[in-house]
């Protein structure tokens, strides 16, 4: 079914008149770029005249290389499409995928420059169905001052000790409640359990909604919503995109009710209270900023829905992959368990609860999470569109072309990491720098994921409680890498409660 869906998706994209116009326009542009170097920049600067399009091929007319990209993406080594061309053309090459000419980069330095560029050079590039669902006011799509402002507000809140303490309490409660129901007479599906836990934690941080009927309603509508993120871009009654848009409207209505309740409760004055959630942060901003007209209730509500996606996707997958990798590596599991059991015994002796700083202070646990991010590549890459001709390290990226920073190949490049396909959390010991451009699991630049610290915290808490409370045997399962990273069988494990003192 997945293969059929993607074939239909590609055909729909390629047959759309808009895409055809873009293809023909950029092909003619490509020809002119090759034949006339002086047209590479509107300013005709010497730097553009000395640069050139990267080597590569645009593939078949209209189809480009999309079908081969997708077929390799479903394999055990989805990076083989990119790696094959990297060997032929170099770390930066041209291709034609998903209906647009594309510069693909496995050069970490080139990708870093693009990701750190502002909206005067590059803007986000997403499939049409996703942009329709997100809306023009989504933090994923807006640019300039407004994007930086919202991103900065949310990022600062996510880094605050107050929120980390709240996340820790909520995560502990939801994890414990989930694990109390586990029995040894049936398999536990780790992917399902982590999705349920992470979604509730994130929704609480965003809109202060507790488990109950409204949370269940939100979950149901959210499942319908995300089903349309990579659907056919057809918005008619009965289509998936239409159903997803209707689901988002229902969720937005619920969030708007939360906003109205907060306004009534606080009398519109949010600046005198400590923010409990992201809505409080943004509402407070509208009362103190000269640009309050930008942060309307509709904009805030829309972005709350978009920001729920990590609770359904990236954070649960991080936890699930960590369980898979340590299940397949007994020595890593042993060291991880010993480290967490030591902390648990110490806190039990002191009669103190674990704090967020306790969880993040465990060095080997953090190494396991870092290595899971490197190997798992929950985000395989980041796409941008050039708004003008750009030259980077001698490579020309023409206006209107897509730039695809393919992170997965960088993380699995043997020139960057020894035995890159081997799970080896010890490679990160001795405080090895994880801030270099060869390790970018959360993207980079102005759109760096603001929740990266919280993702690590949630994974640390889940791993601690799992390894200190259970022994387990994992059933055979495989990683599916496209269109999103997930476990094929949802990671079934058979658990047995520990009797360790």
Automatic annotation (TrEMBL):
<dbReference type="GO" id="GO:0102097">
    <property type="term" value="F:22alpha-hydroxysteroid 23-monooxygenase activity"/>
</dbReference>
<dbReference type="Pfam" id="PF00067">
    <property type="entry name" value="p450"/>
</dbReference>
<keyword id="KW-1069">Brassinosteroid biosynthesis</keyword>
<feature type="binding site" description="axial binding residue">
    <location>
        <position position="449"/>
    </location>
    <ligand>
        <name>heme</name>
    </ligand>
</feature>
<dbReference type="InterPro" id="IPR017972">
    <property type="entry name" value="Cyt_P450_CS"/>
</dbReference>
<dbReference type="GO" id="GO:0048441">
    <property type="term" value="P:petal development"/>
</dbReference>
<dbReference type="InterPro" id="IPR001128">
    <property type="entry name" value="Cyt_P450"/>
</dbReference>
<comment type="pathway">
    <text>Hormone biosynthesis.</text>
</comment>
<comment type="similarity">
    <text>Belongs to the cytochrome P450 family.</text>
</comment>
<keyword id="KW-0444">Lipid biosynthesis</keyword>
<keyword id="KW-1133">Transmembrane helix</keyword>
<comment type="pathway">
    <text>Secondary metabolite biosynthesis; terpenoid biosynthesis.</text>
</comment>
<keyword id="KW-0443">Lipid metabolism</keyword>
<keyword id="KW-0408">Iron</keyword>
<dbReference type="InterPro" id="IPR002401">
    <property type="entry name" value="Cyt_P450_E_grp-I"/>
</dbReference>
<keyword id="KW-0472">Membrane</keyword>
<dbReference type="GO" id="GO:0010268">
    <property type="term" value="P:brassinosteroid homeostasis"/>
</dbReference>
<dbReference type="GO" id="GO:0048443">
    <property type="term" value="P:stamen development"/>
</dbReference>
<dbReference type="GO" id="GO:0016132">
    <property type="term" value="P:brassinosteroid biosynthetic process"/>
</dbReference>
<dbReference type="InterPro" id="IPR036396">
    <property type="entry name" value="Cyt_P450_sf"/>
</dbReference>
<protein>
    <recommendedName>
        <fullName>22alpha-hydroxysteroid 23-monooxygenase</fullName>
        <ecNumber>1.14.14.147</ecNumber>
    </recommendedName>
</protein>
<dbReference type="GO" id="GO:0020037">
    <property type="term" value="F:heme binding"/>
</dbReference>
<dbReference type="GO" id="GO:0016709">
    <property type="term" value="F:oxidoreductase activity, acting on paired donors, with incorporation or reduction of molecular oxygen, NAD(P)H as one donor, and incorporation of one atom of oxygen"/>
</dbReference>
<keyword id="KW-0752">Steroid biosynthesis</keyword>
<feature type="region of interest" description="Disordered">
    <location>
        <begin position="33"/>
        <end position="54"/>
    </location>
</feature>
<keyword id="KW-0503">Monooxygenase</keyword>
<dbReference type="GO" id="GO:0048366">
    <property type="term" value="P:leaf development"/>
</dbReference>
<keyword id="KW-0560">Oxidoreductase</keyword>
<keyword id="KW-0479">Metal-binding</keyword>
<dbReference type="GO" id="GO:0005789">
    <property type="term" value="C:endoplasmic reticulum membrane"/>
</dbReference>
<keyword id="KW-0812">Transmembrane</keyword>
<dbReference type="GO" id="GO:0005506">
    <property type="term" value="F:iron ion binding"/>
</dbReference>
<keyword id="KW-0349">Heme</keyword>
<feature type="transmembrane region" description="Helical">
    <location>
        <begin position="6"/>
        <end position="25"/>
    </location>
</feature>
<dbReference type="GO" id="GO:0016125">
    <property type="term" value="P:sterol metabolic process"/>
</dbReference>
